[in-house]
Design brief:
Blueprint: H1 6-9, H2 12-18, E1 26-30, H3 36-49, E2 58-62, H4 65-79, E3 87-90, H5 91-102, E4 113-114, H6 117-131, H7 144-156, H8 161-168, H9 176-192, E5 195-196, H10 198-211, H11 213-222, E6 225-228, H12 236-245, E7 251-255, H13 270-273, H14 275-278, E8 283-287, E9 289-290, H15 295-306, E10 320-321, E11 330-336, H16 337-353, E12 362-366, H17 372-381, E13 386-388, H18 398-411, H19 416-423, H20 431-448, H21 459-462, H22 470-499, H23 511-516, H24 527-530, H25 539-547, H26 549-558, H27 562-576, H28 582-594, E14 607-611, E15 620-625, H29 636-640, H30 645-655, E16 658-672, E17 675-678, H31 683-686, E18 694-695
Parallel strand pairs: 1-7, 1-8, 2-3, 2-6, 4-5, 6-7, 9-10, 11-16, 11-18, 12-14, 12-15, 13-14, 15-16
Antiparallel strand pairs: 16-17
This protein binds adenosine-5'-triphosphate and magnesium ion.
Adenosine-5'-triphosphate binds at residues 10-11, 14, 30, 32-38, 256, 259, 291-292, 617, 619.
Length: 698
């Protein structure tokens, strides 16, 4: 490891925080762009180079996969240790890692599947239909998605359903006891299918640590230091996990209370405000200087900070510029959404032709996804390349989920929701029928001690399949058995390598032959299989197998634009080829979806469009914030609810993403359900001294 000159690369406040004693709790409390994330990165390097910690003794927790990857890459180049030797990632990904290794103590099988929100909704629906068959006929009862949100909020805040409802869902009149019962039934469904939802990754992680003193001891002794970025957005579950793991005070947290933007998901701003009470020995570090933004932008951001309610002077912040700047922030009102889009497109074209900034230096942020629609259109007209970190993430797209669900099913054969997923291609098989078929599959599999995917073409199972679907079901069954064979090979070889790390992986060429004699199946030799002398069971080969065969035919029946969708498979192959280890691959796919950030293509040279939430922690030379009008930002819902403080913090987050240029725009008129509505400038702009910005085209 090369010697790092910590003093030269950090200012004195940052240096103090980086070199804080590892056994004393440390909190860095500082405004946006002051180098908190940088401080955390250097602290890891310092712990390794100066304190003699090993990478595996360091736990680094962040909120998005992208932030985690960026930090680990930086740490890798600073320390020379490969990124994967650290315990670094999002809370959910580290929870997943704990549960894969230690989950047996909770009765969790190591191949458990991870449900995304759509899967969870299906299971909740099933739980409702079984507990309260008439629940959904009452129009006042919440639908599955809202039920999931209530249950999730209660779990993340570690409160009862009743408290969660009173606090955040007070318009719902359904008795809390009913929803609690649904939550229990949903829980049972998940466990029976050996599945976890995203909240389980935290909740079971906490349970694991609190119920197993030996396991807790092992890890709390092992992690010399636990570092947490964006601490202001931790919720009760996360802070309870941290309290257990960092009971020795070996925690370093960084955050900015003014950037707490996830309270709707249970983020507990008190975690940062009361850090000193929780950890009385804590050192608190402040960093005043801001390296990101121009003095003009900071002046504007300071005015937003002035408008925030503060209980405690300790948290009063002023962003002090460390660099020069030329332009005041600009505010551009527009006639309506379309003209806002046109103005922004025109401004982007001008900025780009100035030669100083490329398209990828520019980001457009908005409060809600729908606001990007007009803009997308105008950017297309103006032929400006852009990439949108969309609400629907790559792995949430229907066809990508189709592929992944087949793989998830063979990896975790009890996973009834993934089975349901690919059954939706079959004529006459709705959710209910699919669940019934699965019951039979489970029964047959148990009686023969075979994994579920091996018995899809069993006569007893086929007897449950509606005649119209038989042909497709049988084709699918054959392909899924093949897929299962590959996954089994991949898993066997992983185990083998673990046991004998030095040895080469033996390739079992007889596996397909063995499969041709699968129980209750005509021994129709598969020509492709016969030719296989060397089975390729890499994640990429597995994905390829799932994209072909019956599925390629089936997708033509369901998707009109199947050719376009099939083009995405290349992106999937590419993604898969980054992995050697099958379990890593699968966990990564599942966790991509848990991320607030979404997945964007890595192609450069494009303007980036994203929500403010997705822009957390990022910075861009040029930032547009569109839709800064009453009812949009702050949202109507927050205005009606009488609390816009979180919206104000979001506005602060948005403005502080900008390094050189900040341009804020809003439509004077917007169309709501065919009616036109006049809009006022956002109160967040009205609250600010107009001398801090320039008004254009008013
Ligand atoms: P946010 O609150 O938005 O997450 P942050 O406090 O984490 O911001 P960073 O992203 O770490 O801030 O830093 C902001 C920018 O300032 C980065 O480009 C970083 O490299 C730069 N920076 C921070 N400290 C220094 C320094 N001492 N010298 C030079 N550049 C610095
Ligand atoms: Mg940061």
């Amino acid at each position: 490891m090369e010697k790092i000159d910590f003093n030269a690369e950090l200012n004195s406040d940052q240096y103090a925080a980086v070199t804080s004693p590892p056994d004393r709790p440390a909190l860095v409390l500082a405004g946006a762009g002051s180098g908190k994330t940088r401080t955390l990165t250097y602290r890891v390097a310092w712990l390794i180079s100066e304190c003699g910690f090993r990478p595996r003794d360091i736990l680094l927790l962040t909120f998005t996969n992208k932030a985690a990857n960026q930090m680990l890459a930086r740490i890798e180049s600073l320390t020379g240790y490969p990124a994967r030797s650290f315990w670094g990632g999002t809370f959910h990904s580290i929870g997943n890692r704990f549960l894969r290794i230690e989950g047996g103590a909770l009765g969790l099988e190591p191949n458990f599947g991870i449900l995304d929100t759509e899967d969870s909704d299906k299971l909740i629906k099933k739980a409702v239909e079984e507990s309260y068959p008439h629940f959904f006929s009452n129009k006042d009862n919440p639908r599955s998605k809202l039920l999931r949100e209530i249950i999730s909020y209660a779990r993340n805040t570690r409160s009862t359903i009743q408290t969660a409802m009173a606090y955040r869902f007070d318009w719902i009149e359904t008795p809390a006891s009913q929803i609690a019962e649904i939550a229990r039934a949903y829980e049972a469904e998940k466990r029976a299918a050996n599945n976890c939802d995203f909240d389980d990754l935290l909740e079971l992680w906490l349970k694991l640590l609190s119920e197993n003193p030996d396991i807790l001891k092992k890890y709390s002794e092992r992690f010399g230091n636990i570092l947490v970025d964006e601490f202001q957005d931790t919720n009760k579950l996360q802070s309870d996990i941290l309290d257990l793991l960092a009971s020795r005070g070996n925690i370093s947290a960084v955050g900015d209370d003014a950037q707490c933007i996830y309270s709707w998901r249970g983020a507990e701003i008190d975690n940062i405000l009361r850090f000193r009470e929780r950890y009385p020995a804590a050192y608190i570090y402040k960093i005043e200087r801001n390296y990101r933004s121009s003095p003009q932008i900071l002046n504007f951001a300071n005015k937003i900070l002035d408008g925030m309610e503060l209980d405690d002077e300790e948290f009063k912040k002023t962003l002090v510029p460390a660099r020069d700047g030329y332009f005041k922030p600009r505010v551009m009102p527009a006639m309506d959404g379309a003209s806002q889009g046109r103005n922004v497109a025109r401004a982007i074209a001008e900025i780009e032709s100035g030669g100083r900034y490329g398209y990828d230096d520019i980001a457009v942020l908005y409060r809600s996804h729908f606001q990007a629609m007009d803009l997308q259109l105008q950017l297309q007209y103006a032929k400006i390349p852009f990439v949108m970190t969309s609400g629907v993430k790559f792995f949430e797209q229907a066809h990508v989920k189709d592929i992944v669900s087949q793989i998830k099913f063979v990896a975790n054969p009890k996973d009834n929701v993934s089975f349901l997923r690919f059954c939706r291609f079959m004529p006459k098989i709705g959710d209910k029928t699919a669940f019934k078929i699965f019951e039979k599959i489970r029964e047959v599999a148990a009686s023969k001690s075979l994994p579920e995917w091996r018995v899809l073409s069993d006569k007893k199972v086929l007897a449950k399949v509606p005649a119209a679907a038989k042909q497709m079901f049988e084709a699918a069954a054959a392909d899924i058995e093949k897929l299962g064979g590959l996954v089994e090979l991949a898993k066997r070889s992983e185990k083998h390598v673990e046991a004998n790390p030095a040895e080469k992986i033996p390739v079992q060429t007889d596996f397909f032959a063995d499969m041709a004699h699968a129980p209750e199946r005509e021994a129709s030799a598969d020509p492709a299989a016969e030719n296989t002398t060397e089975a390729d069971f890499s994640p990429k080969a597995i994905i390829k197998c799932a994209c072909g065969g019956w599925y390629r035919d089936a997708m033509k029946t369901l998707y009109e634009d199947w050719e376009e969708r099939a083009a995405d498979f290349d992106a999937l192959f590419e993604y898969a080829s980054k992995f050697d280890d099958f379990d890593d691959f699968l966990a990564s796919v599942a966790l991509e979806i848990s991320d607030a950030e979404g997945r964007e293509s890595e192609v450069g040279g494009r303007v980036r469009l994203m929500t403010v939430h997705q822009a957390k922690g990022l910075e861009f030379p040029v930032v547009f914030v569109i839709g800064a009008a009453e009812g949009l930002f702050p949202t109507q819902r927050s205005i009606d609810g009488g609390d816009v403080e979180e919206e104000r913090r979001l506005f602060y987050v948005a403005s502080t993403r900008a390094m050189d240029l900040l341009i804020i725009s809003y439509p004077r008129v917007s169309a709501v359900g065919g009616n036109f509505e006049m809009r006022q400038a956002s109160r967040f702009l009205e609250d600010i001294d107009p001398a801090t910005y320039e008004l254009y085209g008013a």
